[in-house]
Design goal:
- The complex is a heterodimer of chains A (about 400) and B (about 1100).
- With about 400 residues, chain A is α+β, with helices and mostly antiparallel strands.
- Chain A is built from eleven helices and ten strands.
- Chain A starts with a helix and ends in an 11-residue tail after the last helix.
- Chain B is α+β, with helices and mostly antiparallel strands.
- In chain B, the strands form six sheets. In chain B, strands 14-33-32-31-15-27-30-29-28 form a nine-stranded mixed sheet, sandwiched between helices. In chain B, strands 17-16-26-25-24-23-22-21-20 form a nine-stranded antiparallel sheet, sandwiched between helices. In chain B, strands 3-2-4-13-5-11 form a six-stranded antiparallel sheet.
- Classes of the chains: A alpha+beta (about 400), B alpha+beta (about 1100).
- The interface between A and B is large, with 140 and 149 residues.
- Chain B: GO terms for molecular function: ATP binding; ATP hydrolysis activity; magnesium ion binding; phosphatidylcholine flippase activity.
- Chain B: It is a multi-pass membrane protein.
Chain lengths: ~400, ~1100
Amino acid sequence: GEINKTDQHQYYNEWIFGLEKGSKRIAAMMATSYNAKEEDGHHSGASSHGAAGVVKSKKPDNTAFKQQRLPAWQPILTAGTVLPAFFVIGLIFIPIGIGLYVSSNNIKEFEIDYTGVDISNPCYSCAKNFSWNSTTPCVCSMNFTLEQPFESNVFMYYGLSNFYQNHRRYVKSRDDSQLNGDQSALKNPSKECEPYRTSDGLPIAPCGAIANSLFNDTLELYHIDSNNTRNTIPLVKKGIAWWTDKHVKFRNPGENLTAAFQGTNKPVNWRKPVYELDPSDPDNNGFINEDFIVWMRTAALPTFRKLYRIIQKKSNTTPTLPSGKYVLEITYNYPVLSFDGRKRMILSTISWMGGKNPFLGIAYITVGSICFFLGVVLLIIHHKYDTRSNSADIPN
Amino acid sequence: MHQHKQKPKNKEERRVRANDRDYNEKFQYASNCIMTSKYNIITFLPVNLFEQFQEVANTYFLFLLILQLIPQISSLSWFTTIVPLALVLSITAVKDATDDYFRHKSDNQVNNRQSQVLIRGLLQNEKWMNVRVGDIIKLENNQFVAADLLLLSSSEPHGLCYIETAELDGETNMKVRQSVSVTSELGDQNNLASFDGEVVCEPPNNKLDRFCGTLYWRDKKYTLTNQNMLLRGCVLRNTEACYGLVIFAGPDTKLMQNSGRTKFKRTSIDRLMNTLVLWIFGFLVCMGVILAVGNAVWEREVGSLFQSYLPWDPPVDNFLFSAFLSFWSYVIILNTVVPISLYVSVEVIRLGHSYFINWDQQMFCSQCNTAAEARTTTLNEELGQVEYIFSDKTGTLTQNIMSFNKCSINGQTYGKYTHTHTLSGRFIRLDFTPFNPLADPNFCFYDDTLLESVKVGDSHTHEFFRLLSLCHTVMSEEKSEGELVYKAQSPDEGALVTAARNFGFVFRSRTPGTITTTEIGRPVTYTLLAILDFNNIRKRMSVIVRNPEGRIRLYCKGADTVLLERLHPCNQELMNITSDHLNEYAADGLRTLALAYRDLSEDEWEAWSESHRCADKATNCREDRLAAAYEEIEQDMMLLGATAIEDKLQEGVPETIAVLSLANIKIWVLTGDKQETAVNIGYSCKMLTDNMTEVFIIRGHTVQSVRQDFRSVSLEGQEGDGTGGEGGKQLQCPPPPPSNLMDNISGEFALVINGHSLAHALEADMEMEFVSTACACKAVICCRVTPLQKAQVVELIKKHKKAVTLAIGDGANDVSMIKSAHIGVGISGQEGIQAVLASDYSFSQFRFLQRLLLVHGRWSYLRMCRFLCYFFYKNFAFTMVHFWFGFFCGFSAQTVYDQYFITLYNIVYTSLPVLAMGIFDQDVPDQRSLEYPKLYEPGQLNLLFNKREFFICIAQGIYTSVVLFFVPCAVLSDATQSTGVPLADYQTFAVTTATALVIVVSVQIALDTGFWTVFNHVFVWGSLGSYFTIMFALHSQTLFKIFPNQFHFVGSAQSTLLQPVVWLTIALATAICIVPVLAFRFLKVDLKPQLSDTVRKHTQTQRFYH
């Protein structure tokens, strides 16, 4: 196909070019022959060479571009440039790696699995007896001990495993127009939301599989002090979502939520409609509910964690979470056992580079060391084998 | 293509009746309107799209587009495919439209030319396109012939007219055409208007030099030949006016019939590329199958359980169906391994290289005002891989400017010195003017004994020059009294006639029946009885003239081999002496001709004249019968002597040949000259040297003797094994069983083979022997070869050596060779433009070949290879990330990147830097590649891009994709923003991976680019800049607010790229991708430097010190 076409073009170009060239030449010839006629009254057998004076020189322009003599930087891989580069990379990466490793190690992190797979797990019965229709929530408590105090702000995450939030059909099953408060999309959600687009003839708000599978366990944390009393640890639920999500991407369809969501239905898995997600804070309802927003930001991998609550540091003197005994009270609403999923609760402090992340530090140290090592090896090889450093002798 | 709408019912013959439009219309002959354009405004879009979708690649992408419209399969938005496809289609469409526009313009211009048509006895101006078959049209001097005409009458005597056929066959000399005598008498318009002859002739064909037809008029038959025809494209010269009958019009004319499509040539890289694209298709299917199997397993083990949160799409009821859909989904998202922009980019690069060739000042010849021209834009990189050059000699290695140098008259040789000797200036150039006022002042001759011999009236000498002044087809023009200009078909003829002119036998003018000369001041008019024309088979021409005294004599000149056989036996002694002289001349590298005459009695002439006329009138086998008739009379001739013409070598030929052979290019000279001449030229252009171990000459006439010759060559070659000092390059001939002896010879050999031996050597049973022997030799000269043999030799090497061949020539006899070689180069020189029209590249000097190959070819190859390597690499690095992600997203064909990134990656973010590299890259400066011809070798051995290199690129691409997926994966899975928000969300991951990818491929192109011009800087930095700009724009609130459903990634760029961890991840991934490449390349340059590396380094140090 392509080939034949090029072929044709070529032929046409040739043909046209030939014609043009021909007519130009003829014109030149005629010009000379007429001149000759005027001069001596004879026919002139003008030849193409005779027209040289008339024809403009076809000499190509002497520009750096056309003659391929553009000034250019021509880097070469020499020992003088490559080896220092290796050492420099090594010298930069190793300290960064050490820094990352140290700060990652300073981060306190605690993780507890509350899925209830084992019979020994307090949530076992909740997990086993889960039913979508039950009206009374199942509550279970997990006791745990923090060996070390958690200074500064502590972030509380829930983690899910084997949960495919990155599945193509899952990812696309949402309507961003609806979530942005668009009225028409609210009443007529995108087809992408199927099969969670309508229920009982009414459009679902928020529609789609992501919204439908909203994580709805409630986690509460109590500190058991020396008197064995349970002190509720205050959990802040604001500031857990991206700023752009909270303020740009997710918008409610109106001020009065109940009225705005009139004529829509709640997602089938939900117990409450979207405008009653947070009974404690009227501003945290509808599509701009932060827990909802956090859930809607789908995870890249099947094992993920999402920010649940923040435990603010109270004073400079006492740690946010002192070491000791704690109780995690779970309102177990979210079944994962059916697909072999796992649920975790994670407590973590944060440094300048985020949460605990030993991989990055180790990777930096490794890569830096390898670079340095490579530099040394290459240096040795270069000195040992390279006798042609003076390239005066070029074989020909 | 021309539209052959008209289907003449009668295929065997064509009938045309003059001045009878009604009669001719019955046959529905083509009108004189030509249409080379393909489209008009309405048909452009459908026809062009239809043509474009005939290309496999485009159809493939259309197919993908359709797949994407199926919601269950669609893994990408429709625009990710349609935008690149539309871009590619529209670039091609614009190019097609421009081409067609110019075609329309030229068609219109040609169709609207005016011509004078005789309608009902009146001359009327008509446009060309309205001229019909059967019309009589009037042509005036210097007008183009509008259609193929039968010449009826002319203003000149005898119904003669002169035409120039440069447009048609490239020959610039004038040709004579003569009308049939009965019509030439018609004369004026009134007679012509009543002319109602009917022509019956052959159907349209493309043979320019043949026409067969009969004119029926007033119950008589007249034979028509090409001599009576004026073909479209010719120009009327030196003739005031003439009338012609339109026989063929428009698309039926010989000009249009000849402009058929040329055989398309493809480069080996093209073929490799197509193979690789097929492999990639295969690879794509494999990936699809693997992922589909994965999908089946996942849906069965996990997906079916996960249905409470993510139910299957309605039509899917089991995991197998899901896997089937997933296969197609993956075909869609992995389609970017088959790069849609590859072919367009390759075309753009080649076009750029072609322009560089056209623009090269150092390939511009100021004498002839011709710049080099890349007539084909698709072969450039193959110029960097040439292994065999087949060169014509005359006009290619030599200037084809002939000078009469020596002659032998009646056993006496004159003219002792060839051109080279005269440079010292010891010899005085003869001054002819006192003796002969008509002499050509530019003529040089250095032996005054010859002039003396003319002056004293030596009869042999006089007869010798008389022959030269009579026996030729030169046309003369006398601008003013005594100022003669000769127009010769071949420079040899011109030189001989000019020699005769200076020695007092001046050819003045000719008519069809007479030749007028001035013999030592005395005007003589000879009656020209017959011209027995020259052709390649006869290798001689004769004229039969009657002198004023009434004596009839045949003068013949021709190649010595044919002429000496036809002499009267009494010439034996003279023949021996003359043969010696001929051999001497040939050994000096001169072109020789022997001259002879024969006296004919009136009876002999009459008898022969009758048989000749019979042969001439014959309708079938006319040529053969004519040849037989000629043969009959050219017998028993008396030898007069021989001439020797020098054809000077072109400037720089020996140097060019030396450089090219240092570049390991084998040069074969294929010439029609005789062996001695060819060998001599071989020595003077340093193809053959005295250092050569042996020059084998094969000139056997029979199969056995040729075979014997080859055998002995093989044996000697083996003996020569020990003597050859330097280790010859190992020969890569696939050794045929009997003659693998030739493989281990070393030392330098040369082979000279004669045309008749070559005919045997080219036969199927001996060709292997010939190829292996010839390829073992450093230089091969084939002499006395026919145009067909030239092409056969080229085909033979193409077939057996799988090497890239280049044929270079200047004449019509080289056209077949130029067309059959991988690359054809035409020298625009003395012999018209036929070779140039058939060629892929053209320039005016042989020496430009070294620049074309060693500089442009080498660079083109290098650039194309680097381009392809990088192109495949970047697409694999980009696409394979999806594959790895498949294992983590349930094989659901979820893409890793934002759909806009996928759309723009190939066409915006990474296209220009690699194009800039493909167009501008240089590893060593141009002078260096001429200084070190060995730099050419990697191209010949195909080292820079082959299957192995391809796999390395692919492997590197896959490695990069692994790093680009798993490093962010490992880092981000646990990482959080400094606000505590996890970084492992899909959008952050997508932005991180995409940014890392763009940075890694940019660093990689920076490593690959060896020549950073301002364009490279602008494109590399510009691409990076455009990536960030476009990403921030696409992730901006403004766009989201307008189309909330299209721009899901709002805010991702800002929030991701503000995180130090993300940048640390990108830096880490870049280091892991690039460091091994850097180390590997450094080791390669340091331990096993290629010559180009060394030269490059050397050049830099020099620049540094100076």
